[in-house]
Amino acid sequence: MFSAGHIRHTRRHRTRAAIETLENRTLLATFVVTNAGNDPAFTSGLRFPQALAQANGNPGPDTIIFDLSPEQQTADIISVHGPLTISGDLIIIGPTEIHSSRGPNARQIVINSAQFNQQLFKINSGVDVTIANVYLAGGNGDQPRGAAVDNAGNLTLQDVQAVGIIDGNSPGGTIYNTGDLTISRSLLRGFTNGEGGVIYSESGSVRIENTTIDFSLGDDNGGAIYFNSGTGVILNSTIVTNEAAFGAGGGLYINDANNTDILVHNSIIAGNTSFENNVRVPSDIFGTLNPASSFNIIGDA
Q1: CA–CA distance, 176 with 195 (Å, rounded to integer)
Q2: Is residue 87 part of a domain?
Q3: What's the CA gap between 215 and 167, in Å, rounded?
């Protein structure tokens, strides 16, 4: 038989456990963006910057999704002033099916700060972020690096198109990385007068899978990607027709002095160029790949 004291203790324990479970559930929030913010006649609903601010203020991992009505002007383009800081664990996911209120002709949602010549996202250290099924467009007139994303956290880009343009000579036309970066099933392009036309990885790790990086320009070294240090893995990907205009490594630039370890497998890195004596010449990889790299097509190898 249980005593009254034991029963009271058990009830308190169960009640406390139930409250803790409920609290944990309330920490997981989904914010639905319904206002693209571009139509003066459409004033109701949650805008993307508001959703991000609420997610940052809510402890625990959160999700931002989109349900933008077709009545809004340019309902598939979300123009924002950046940089937008992500300071907590977050998933941002665009519509995965066209069977939504946006209609059968809906296009991929564009999150755009390029028209204001501003960086789009700044991701803090120590946070896990996934961005999927959206188009990212960033400009960078007054920020030092990474027009679309300056990543210091653990960032995954999946089914994303991303483009960044830097007016000055800052590194990383589209992405500047000092954290852990994973890119899959995506298309990236970028431009900078500095190094790393698309990606400049200062440190940390980069993993690229089933992704295309093309038609990009870094005026200095690394037309597509500049690996300064850390590790990188490129799998089943295509890096073509990029240019390091006044440097080396139109495709990849690998800084061997920092023992940078880059493994490439089953990928195409070809048709990338640089300039020597005012003549465009093939320049796919500058630096040394991990000797375990295999099953690749390297243009100037």
Answers
A1: 10
A2: no
A3: 17
Please confirm whether the linkage preceding 83 is cis (ω < 30° from 0): yes
4 lies in a domain?
Answer: no
- Residues 219 and 249 sit within 8 Å (Cβ to Cβ): no
Angle at 161 between CA 225 and CA 69, to 5 degrees: 160
pLDDT in tens, 117-171: 899 999 999 999 999 999 999 987 656 799 999 999 999 999 999 999 987 788 9
Residue 183 within a domain: yes
Q: Is the pTM of this model over 0.70?
A: yes
Q: Which two tokens stand for residue 164?
A: 């960044």
* Number of domains comprising the chain: 1
Q: Return the residue matching tokens 């559930």.
A: 25
Whole domain around residue 206: which residue ranges? 113-298
Pairing of strands 279-282, 285-286: unpaired
CB 63 within 8 A of CB 100: no
Cα–Cα distance, 99 to 106 (Å, whole number): 9
Nearest CA-CA partner of 241 in 283, 271, 280: 271
Say if 72 falls within a structural domain.
no
Alpha carbons 253 and 231: distance in angstroms, whole number:
13
